[in-house]
Amino acid sequence: MELFGNRQAVIEGCSGILEYESELVRVRAGKTILRIKGRGLHIKCMDSASLVVEGVLLSVEYT
User: What is the DSSP secondary-structure string of 30-62?
Assistant: First the structure.
């Protein structure tokens, strides 16, 4: 995962979106679940290799 300031997150190896709202995005990346909290979150693009989340990122949690 790469963070570009608090505006963009690029997640490689994403295997699925578990939850998608304007204030929360949860995705599965291998055995890990990433939980991104923020404001105005949206998925800019998704392909077989990566997922790009944009908005105001407030926190990132690994579970």
Answer: TTEEEEEEEEEEEEEEE-SSEEEEEEEEEEEEE
CA distance 10 to 8: 7
Sheet architecture: strand order including 8-12: 2-4, 8-12, 50-62, 32-46, 24-29, 14-20
Residue type, 38: G
pLDDT value for 27: 95
**Token pair 């990566």 is at which residue?**
50
Q: For the segment 17-28, what is each residue's pLDDT rounded down to a tens digit?
A: 999 999 999 999
